[in-house]
Amino acid sequence: MNECHYEQKMEFFYNHSNSKTEDDWSGARLIIILVFGSIFCLFIFLSNAMVIAAVITNKRFHFPFYYLLANLAASDFFAGIAYVYLMFNTGPVSKTLTVHRWFLRQGLLDTSLSASLANLLVIALERYISVMKMTVHSNLTKRRVTVLIIMVWAVSIFMGAVPSLGWNCICSLNDCSILAPIYSRSYLVFWSVSNLLVFFIMVVVYMRIYIYVKKKIIVLSPHTKGSISRKRTPMKLIKTVMTVLGVFVICWTPGLVVLLLDGLHCSSCRLLDVKQWFLQLAMLNSIINPIIYSYKDEEMRNTFRNMISCGRNRGRITRTSSRALSCSIEPSRNTEESSISFHKEVKA
Question: Name one GO molecular function term (predicted).
Fold first, then answer.
């Protein structure tokens, strides 16, 4: 019977796996990482909180697509929490962690990735439903959207907790990986392959949706009235999601490939040299997403602008403050007008 080592500190497992990378995160280098990491995490918190606030306050965003987009922002916000916990439990501190605290550190990261991935899958479902009916927004009820959001977080938390529930190498040291000293290599293979497979499926699905909508718009264009921008509203939403998906795949694929190589026990691969850089690339994903929303979605951009300007005016006289409060829910009318127009044009 294999001996288990739950009472050991992480230094025992780092030494066993010959993982020296944590020693490099010390001194001036660690201070630089903490300073810049804190700045990035602060931006993650503020920007994604603005996305969530925009969806809540702007009635033009009260549609299934934007509810799910807000949930994606919530997963990025959660990723920021995971990065903060990681930053202050890395470097020399890593080896002093208990097994349970290390599981918590990695579990937060795994949960944030699973939440982002699951959200993109659910958004793909919502976009598919809307595309099949050629509408700007699907007719998913708020109750169904709420159930989907709950399912996203339930599955994500479970996936993040799997190693701590037993799929680890604490009782089988020969199966321990290098990058994650108490994760079994078999789990890393499962984790990386399953995520890469989902990446591939989502890319294929969105490409099919994009091609389908583009063909439909070309067919409908000669028979519809209204501005070109209104006809292209469904395509704009799909392009936004495809951009988010593309950035997500670019930011996370290198790290998953490295984990896969570690799981396959690639002894000639210099995995420790690239580990921290790919982790920072993954962190960059949570920073970029709010920028994509504001750049690709004019309605979202205008709402951000109103929220910022209202915040500046809040400390002025009562009349101006009242106006600031009201303008926080005063969006442009592009989305609603586009939705009504597109419905009428398709029915025509």
Answer: lysophosphatidic acid receptor activity
Q: How far apart are CA 266 and CA 260, in angstroms?
A: 9
Q: Which residues pair with 98 in a beta bridge?
A: 9
Maximum alpha-carbon separation in the chain: 76
- Which residues, other chains included, contact 191 with Cβ-Cβ below 8 Å and sequence gap of 6+? 110, 256, 259, 263
Residue 198 contacts residue 121 (beta carbons within 8 Å): yes
For residues 110 and 157, give the distance between their C-alpha atoms in angstroms, rounded to a whole number: 8
Question: How far, in Å, CA of 283 to CA of 199, rounded?
Answer: 18
Q: Cα(222)–Cα(119) distance, rounded to whole angstroms? A: 36
Which backbone phi and psi does 151 adopt, to 5 degrees? -65, -40
What confidence score (pLDDT) does residue 297 get? Answer: 74
Closest CA to 231 of 123, 310, 332, 344: 344
Residues composing the chain: 348
Q: Do 343 and 315 contact (CB within 8 A), yes or no? A: no
pLDDT at 228: 45
Query: Nearest-CA neighbor of 109 among 64, 139, 130, 78?
Result: 78
Structure tokens at 244: 């988010």
Please state, in angstroms and rounded to a whole number, the distance separating the CA atoms of residues 23 and 96.
Answer: 12
25: Cβ contacts below 8 Å, ≥ 6 apart: 33, 90, 91, 92, 94, 276
Average pLDDT across each block of 10 residues of the chain; the chain has 348 residues. List them in order.
81 79 61 83 92 90 89 93 89 87 93 91 83 70 90 94 92 88 92 91 84 75 53 66 86 89 82 77 85 78 82 52 42 45 42
Q: Report yes or no: 109 and 219 within 8 Å, Cβ to Cβ.
A: no
Quick one: CA torsion of 10, 180, 6, 157, rounded to 10 degrees?
120
Q: Distance from CA of residue 32 to its chain's centroid?
A: 25
Gap between the terminal Cα atoms of the chain: 73
136 DSSP assignment = S
- The span from the CA of 186 to the CA of 200, in Å, is 21
